Amino acid sequence: MINNIDTKYSPQQLIINRLMNMKNITNILITLLFITITCISLGCSNKKSNVDQHIDPEETINSSLDNLIELLWLYREGSFTNRTISFLGANSGEYLSSDWVEILIDKLDEHIQHSNINNNKRFNFNQHRGTYTWNSNQGRWVKSSNNMAIILRFPSAKNQSVNSMELHITEYTDTPVLIDGETNYLPSKARASLRHNNNEIFNMQLDNLIYVSHKYVFLPANGTLTLRMNNFVQEFTFSQNNSRHFKFEHTLRSDDKLAFGFSLNLDLRHSSYSDLSEDDFVRLYGAVNITDLVRVEADIAIGELLIRDSLTENEINDFVGLDVYSNNNKIAEMKYHDSLDNYRVIYPDGSGRDIDFFAERFLQQLESVFYIFTGNWYDW
To answer: Structure pTM?
Structure first.
């Protein structure tokens, strides 16, 4: 059994909890997080060439980050995002309408007991079908008959009296999953959309989500979640080749142009999830993609990391492989350096840059994109 770790956690959570307690592994996680939001590609080919001496790695990486920021600005300026800003009263990281939003949610609980869902109670979709209209004068929701869906009509912003927003939930099914000895009902299929002045600005489709569970642990094994907003399509896919192999994929596209994507694979030694020990997590591998310039491939001997309380520089680099590709040509690799307490991007000619060289500039730009929601991140 895994020592000092609550078996209520899923395998992914067990990995994260263990890693966060290990010397130097925080740097790996930070690096992987940075990769997850910075490295770019249209796809992965099994055929790879040797290191390409003709591509300027630094220019390629910087261009990829600039392209990502441009796409994120398009995402940020979309109609769904702007409606969200108005609805929440978002301003420099503060939400000026949070009290009003809380009233809407609390009052809705008089009709749709969503608080019961938080207590592992089953959501009865058929029983709650109807149209719920916010009455600003009375400060309450008024329900009318509707046998087809759950429809919520409400204002687009605080101090607005016209119900210009409509949330339609047209389908919902769930499935029982045993967690910690209790039966929980988790969503397996759903359809929902959000409209402003009868124009759809958000659409959600959840299809065929299947879970595997064993005592305290549950995992989504198969299924797809698709979100459409701001002229972007975002898709999350869960799949399971067998009881010991799980795969999680994500893509964000605009007009068939890939903005961001990743694919992660987890191999386990056996499928008795509640009896997993550190070395039963065999391998974590995959690729991170954004736009059409760069792909970073990661191959991590996760079990080797988990069984060690501390790691040397050589062990980190032996157990964590990070290679950077552009057009299927390897243009750089990433190596951990004890002296830097950080990763370094190494080019084919042996020169390189600390990862902070790319990260600081990119994160400053990213902060600008989402500043209205988050406020300042750092004192640059």
So the answer is: 0.79
